[in-house]
Fold these 2 entries.
Entry 1:
Amino acid sequence: MSTGKCPECGSKKVIKDFARGEIVCGSCGIVIEENIEDHRPEWRSFDSEQREKRARGGAPIKYMRPNKGLVTEIDQYNRDIRGAKISPKKQAQLYRMRKWHKRASIASSMERNLAIALSELDRIASYLGLPDSVRESAALLYRRCIKAELIRGRLIESVVAAVIYATCRMQGNPRTLEELSKVSGIEKKEIGRAYRFIRRELSLDIPLTDPSQYVPKFTAALKLSGQVQEKAIKLLRKAIGKGLISGRGPTGVAAAAVYIASAMCNERRTQKEVADVAGVTEVTIRNRYRELKKELGLKIAL
DNA sequence: AAGACGAAAGTGGTTGA
DNA sequence: TCAACAACTTTCGTCTT
């Protein structure tokens, strides 16, 4: 193995040439080792925070993810496969080939981007069981993002997730950032950031999420009757009328309403059960529940 | 024993200077 | 860019069923 010392001449000038996969002695030129693997990360980092985020075990990302590694390249060395120099005429030809290859790549990068994005979009959509209408609108929205050049500098996946998030909300079928994060593998804040960005740049008009939109999901997950569902939505209507929900997380409010409604209909669920399906804590339910009870003057036997 | 309740301290994100 | 801030979570002790 590479000891940092040349076995032939003893010189310490040992050079790792990753482009050729060789370890050579910088002094006498002997090849110490052939076919070495490049253990350098395939990413660059600009500060320690990034380095921590990107460092990981396993194979380079480009082999784990389809499409990402699939770019053809014409390398920069004017040599044939045996390493011999090639004629000036051929060199000129190679130069032109490189040039046009590069141009063609850029022209098709948009197409490729879209292709990756659409397959990812489809994957997430089926994972979340979204209807075709959502997929269509989401795809359309993504195309708008490309046109407006909003993708550059962002992971395709995070934009896709943001687009789906936005579309779901616009169609009154909201998903939480949590859910998107789970199926896309992108961090919640990253999706949120991308979402806010495209909403601003495309000036999308997306209203605040109405808590009652979450109610059917929660009641279904808790196997509660339609009666409870209606009751919960009625409670929320009143609460909204009193301006009780502004600034509150919609899931928390919805969860509290479901909790109250379940108790009122004698189909009681514990705070913990409701909290789990809603993705909030019991404490939050209690806080919302307290507010609802107070403001709506509810008398409930609990 | 399990659930409900609430206080206090901690966390991550938004906002306004 | 930074500090203040609101919403939410975590943790923990107490009370109720």
Note: Strands of chain A lie at 14-17, 22-25, 31-33.
Entry 2:
Amino acid sequence: MNRRSLSAQREQCKVCSSPEGIVEVACEQCGLDPICDVLDYAEEESGVPAGILLRRQPLQRGETIFRQQENFHSIFAVKSGSFKTSMSRSSQPDQVVGFHFPGELIGVEAMSRQTYPCTARALERSSICELRIPRLPESGRPLEALQASIIDLLGREVMLSHELVSSLVHQSAEQRICGFVLNLSQRLARRKLPSAEFTLTMSRSDIGNYLGLAAETVSRVLTRLHKSGAIRLQRKLVRIVDPSVLERLVEASPLHLSRGIPENKSIRFF
Amino acid sequence: MNRRSLSAQREQCKVCSSPEGIVEVACEQCGLDPICDVLDYAEEESGVPAGILLRRQPLQRGETIFRQQENFHSIFAVKSGSFKTSMSRSSQPDQVVGFHFPGELIGVEAMSRQTYPCTARALERSSICELRIPRLPESGRPLEALQASIIDLLGREVMLSHELVSSLVHQSAEQRICGFVLNLSQRLARRKLPSAEFTLTMSRSDIGNYLGLAAETVSRVLTRLHKSGAIRLQRKLVRIVDPSVLERLVEASPLHLSRGIPENKSIRFF
DNA sequence: CGCATAATTGACGGTTTTCAAGCACTGTGG
DNA sequence: CCACAGTGCTTGAAAACCGTCAATTATGCG
């Protein structure tokens, strides 16, 4: 009996059994899954010592998993809820560097360092799994496989960051926000979560901070998209009515519009 | 006799012996150094099969090391000269995602992928070292140590990207360009290369593309800095006259740090 | 209910982009 | 040696875009 069929039954997974009825990502949709796989987690007799991979108590809105400059010890996977990671810059408000949704990892960029370079804060009531890196060797699993998984994780992270840079610097406010909304939708869809209608758990300021825009601009663009019928918007609740409008806005470059034919689009921003 | 004393003599290093009199980075200043270290390269009797780490023929301006979507096989270290990496995006001009100077690495972000996500092109006559990843196991060295080095490299790259994003999106054109110039200077200084006066081997368009500015804006800001006396500027040659002026403009947000060199060489994973 | 926080909306000004023209450097061939 | 074209760089003027400031409304929480 393999791990996937076990974890599909959910209550069999030692780590991921959901304590209450909150919507959370399934193990096989989680970014930590390849590593759990190596560890044979969810196998009753995996023989992995307890405390290497563990389920943490739910966090309340505003609580932190870790703070900037604390000692690195674990990477985390979001099971439910959402988080933001931010870096404090001297003499200026914090810079939001990322948002994290169920199935996504937090803290991988600290992997090569002594300390976490940013603070991870819950945007709502959320739960996480924790993988204690220094204790991995105790698992008795081949280190090479574990390291290979981690290299894979990091490589993806680098790719994403590069694409984030390219998408941000050359796009207008409208394009950035369309890309942001579409990206959130795609990330939720990838984890098999509702992706046509969802709540923006972060504030307009957080979005603006992340995208390099003023909060007012975020607000203006969102209401403009609402009035144009591309999305429906009620406070923090977003429903994507016409994805093609958003996609067209993201792809359409104000410069060089006449040149080149719009190709097949695979939007992977943020 | 350890590797460092050997490579200090330069002609003893199997990989890095400089064929002609071109200014290039020393091995111990190179981002690949921790890995070469593990491989005991430069040791005459290291026993590592040939062809894993090798010195490539110099590239002419405009030549590519690899192109986007080619199969991944190696990461590269710049020995002399400079490179730009760029990604082509559907229906838009290429996006410059990075510049690479002696001692810095190219291609690490492809580590977890089948193919290179960007194209690496020489900005001038340049030379490189190549590390063939698929052949690493042949070295007989513990894979864990090699993987740990690679994890270290990738972790840094993620950090850099985060810092790049935060420094780009919230800064004015003047701040971005000051940061860019200072960053170049710091990266050169770090590799013990001339850092007060150097040439911008990339075009104004490349700089603008990278920083998310129009080429005209880059030109305007540079001449403004020149007229204010902070720098001297002759076409592509830059001399930093008063670093404090630049630093004050950038304020406290240091632009992306240099690529590829570990601050402390002790890799503390696993 | 009332306060504090967040979101919206409007007006204005500064920065940056765009468009356009002119200039400087490079390399080629006569 | 010079004329020439090609490319990249500089400079100018107008307009678009977005940030700031400020006022107003909405929302959440005690």
Note: Chain B touches chain A through 48 residues (CB under 8 Å).
